[in-house]
Each structure stands twice: as C-alpha cells, then as structure tokens.
Design goal:
With 115 residues, this protein is mainly β. The protein has strands spanning 3-7, 10-13, 18-25, 33-39, 46-52, 57-59, 67-72, 77-82, 91-99, 102-105, 109-114. The strands form 2 sheets. Strands 2, 4, 5, 6, 9, 10 and 11 form a 7-stranded mixed β-sheet that branches. It is globular, with a radius of gyration of 13 Å.
C-alpha cells in the first residue's frame, strides 16, 4: 500500500514563501502523475497543480506565476514551491499520487497566510 507523507506547511505572512514536500513510499514504480490540492474551511477541495511522470505541468489560474510544482522520480517525491503567498491561499494542502487506476492521498498539511 502506498503511503504519502507531507511536510513544509506552517504559518507565514502575506508575501512570504513556503515549500511543501510529499514523499511516496510502498510502490515499486514511479507515480504516473502527482499533484497538490487544497481545501479551505467550508469549501470544496480544488486542484492547485499537477505534474506528469514526463514533467508536464498544469496550474490553477489563481496560483499561476506564484507556485511551482516539481518532482524527483528517483525519490518518489513531489514539491510545491509557493511564493508571494496571499491570505486566500490559506487551506489544508493535500498531496495526491496516481499509479495506473489507483490513487492515493496524503494526510494534508495546514498552510496559513496572515495579512
């Protein structure tokens, strides 16, 4: 069974930066795709960014130009560099990894951006 362990969340002032990491273990192969989602209180979970095994990326319009997703296939790890953070970025951030027809989620890490 695949397990995803996230780290890097915390409290930061508006305009600051954070780097999230998500390490996958328990699989003999690299994930087909990995991504980051977020969920604010009383709101639905939304896609922030994803990256394919080949390195193709997609971003939500709200974070484009500020966030960068990357991955290290050898380490089965995906990263999310978050710059120029805004209070509206405050949410629980979740890592997701896809292996063929299977998908796995991390436990979530809190990101709080103060004004």
């Amino acid at each position: 069974q695949v397990q995803l362990v996230e780290s890097g969340g915390g409290l930061v002032q508006a305009g600051g930066s954070l780097r999230l990491s998500c390490a996958a273990s328990g699989s003999s192969s690299s994930a087909n795709a990995m991504g980051w989602y977020r969920q604010a209180p009383a709101k639905q979970r939304e896609l922030v960014a994803f990256i394919s095994s080949g390195g193709s990326t997609n971003y939500a319009d709200s974070v484009k130009g500020r966030f960068t997703i990357s991955r290290d296939n050898a380490k089965n790890t995906v990263y999310l560099q978050m710059n120029s953070l805004k209070p509206e970025d405050t949410a629980v951030y979740y890592c997701k990894a896809s292996y063929g027809i299977s998908a796995f989620w991390g436990q979530g890490t809190q990101v709080t951006v103060s004004s």
